[in-house]
Each structure stands twice: as structure tokens, then as C-alpha cells.
Design goal:
Strand 9 and strand 10 form a beta hairpin. The protein is of the alpha/beta class and about 180 residues long. The relative contact order is 0.26. It starts with a strand and ends with a strand. The chain contains six helices and ten strands; from the N terminus they run ββααβααββαβαββββ.
Length: about 180
Amino acid sequence: MGEVVVWNLVTLDGYFEGPEPWDLGFHELAWGPELRALSEEFGRKAEALVFGRKTYEGMAAYWTTAEDEGEIKAYMNALPKLVASRTLAEAAWNNSRATADIVGELRALKGRTERPVYIFGSGELVRSLLPEGVIDEIRLAVVPVILGRGRRLFGKGERVGLTLRSAEGLANGTVLLRYAVG
């Protein structure tokens, strides 16, 4: 059975976005050869990508026009993508499909594959899926910076138990954490 894996970069104080939408400048502090290799590995292993509507729109705008991103751009544009939305009329980005029943879609997808299904970004979606029991793993890159304000990844919600699977420090001070959910 496949696993649904959340992947996000967060600051030491828990923000995954700055005060403005798509304020992701702190990502540059974590980026380097190690994170690039991990990102490329995601693309080689993934069954599909999942986004909330806001993240989908931003990702589609970026990856369809990005220059010189190599393997990462190729998989971002090629992989199947599910968009959790009750309002999106059309998901025009290559291999994309919108669904109002993301929980049902993820349960079905997990049963059809052995490969991971990745949720990138999409804080509101992640918070809504945690109590549904469809997220199997949370992977975080904790970036060594205190942002002070912005949007927290987990915000307010129910308590969720996690079990550490691994922790790895990168040369630039970023720490990669993998947690099993539940």
C-alpha cells in the first residue's frame, strides 16, 4: 500500500510561508546539493502529487514557466496531480484533476500503488487531512532561521501523535525530519 507523505520547509519557529502569500524566500537558505538530490528523488519515486487549490495555482504558474530546473521541472510537470477543491472548475496544468472528495481519492490511490503520494505545501489541506487518518508521514526541512511572522504549517487543530523515523542534518544547518503519523 502506498503512503501519503507531507513535504514542507518550515522555519525554526514553525512558519511555512512568510506574511504574504508565496513569501518563501527562506527556502534559499536550505537549498543546496543535498536538498536538490532529495527533491529529485521525490520525483523518481512519486506516484502522484497532491495540492490544495491555492498551492496548485501557485505551483502551476511557476513550474509551467520555470527555466533551467532540470529533472525537478520535468517531474513537476509530468506527474499526475490531484487538486483538493470544491470551487476549481478546471485543473489545466498537465496531468491535473480537481476533486471535492480528496479523502476518498487518497484512500483509493493508496490502495492502488506501492509508491508514495506527496503533498507539497498546502497547509490548509494538510490540517484538514490529519484527523481523517490518510496522512502516513510528515517530512519537514527545518530551516535555520526565525521568521517571526507568517503562516504556520499546522496552525490550530487537533493533537496528532507522531513517531520519529529519522533525523538528518544538512551541511547548511537545515535539519530533515521524518515522522510517522499516529
